[in-house]
From TrEMBL:
One annotated GO molecular function: oxidoreductase activity
Identification of the protein by name: NAD(P)-dependent dehydrogenase, short-chain alcohol dehydrogenase family
SMART domains documented for this protein: PKS_KR
Keywords: Oxidoreductase
Record's keyword annotation contains Oxidoreductase: yes
Family: Belongs to the short-chain dehydrogenases/reductases (SDR) family.
Domain Ketoreductase intervals: 13-205
Length: 256
């Protein structure tokens, strides 16, 4: 076990995670498997080896459905497959994203649209697809992974930053609209979480050191640091919490 708190109501829960086979998503998948949840996840690349690893590590095998989440028909089909296998989805974690760096003056319409198609559009339509079943159950939890990037007035990846600001707005409006149905909708706003992809693509030792100067906690954040917050927001431990954005960034930005 990873040492995360145990939330008894998550045992047997039907959980769906987008991008659940790598980075933060892989940590989320592992964390919910350890709770005894029935986890289904999607991603574009094959995740069979990851599923084997998780089964050996947790004794609980996730259901992997290969899917490009920008194909909304495929995404909704994957949600239906998961519901058929595990029962109506009670916890949806919208996690998949692409924080590709791109100079603002070089961005064309195609790049902008492609960024929204992965970083924002699936969040809305996956939520829309699972909400009717949650309404029928009289409860449900949607957790949207956002980012502190827009709170920092960061630069170099404007479409991603814009999408994450929108995710916070989407979180709040869905929480307002469907709160009467017992559905809670919250966001998690990670700081600089170090993943293999970021190390490979853009994160340098100098950049990491500069960011750590801004953090209150002087250590790098890892995907596992996001799991406790996600478990809390998905569980009955946060039964009175909705329309909120939970910042997990080591103390880089402050709210309130």
């Amino acid at each position: 076990m990873s040492g995360h708190p145990v939330f008894p109501d998550l045992a047997g829960a039907s959980v769906f995670i987008t991008g659940g086979g790598s980075g933060i998503g892989a940590a989320l998948t592992e964390g919910f498997l350890e709770q005894g949840s029935q986890v289904a996840f999607v991603q574009r690349s094959d995740a069979t080896d990851f599923c084997d690893e998780m089964e050996e590590k947790t004794g609980n095998r996730p259901l992997f459905i290969q899917c490009d989440i920008t194909d909304l028909d495929a995404l909704c089909g994957a949600l239906d497959t998961a519901a058929s296998a595990h029962g109506p989805i009670g916890v949806l974690l919208n996690n998949a994203a692409n924080d590709q760096r791109f100079e603002t003056l070089e961005i064309d319409e195609a790049f902008w649209d492609a960024s929204m198609a992965i970083n924002l559009k699936p969040y809305f339509f996956a939520s829309q697809h699972v909400i009717p079943a949650m309404q029928a159950e009289g409860k449900g939890a949607i957790v949207n992974m956002s980012s502190i990037s827009y709170m920092m007035a960061d630069a170099g990846y404007a479409p991603y930053i814009t999408a994450n600001a929108a995710i916070t707005g989407l979180t709040r409006t869905l929480a307002r609209e469907f709160g009467p149905d017992g559905i809670r909708v919250n966001a998690i706003m990670p700081g600089m979480v170090v993943t293999p992809r970021q190390l490979d693509k853009w994160l340098t030792p100098e950049g990491m050191a500069k960011h750590l100067e801004r953090q209150c906690l002087k250590r790098t954040l890892e995907p596992a640091d996001m799991v406790g917050g996600a478990l809390f927001l998905a569980s009955d431990a946060s039964a009175a919490m909705t329309a909120q954005a939970l910042v997990l960034d080591g103390g880089t930005v402050t709210t309130g």
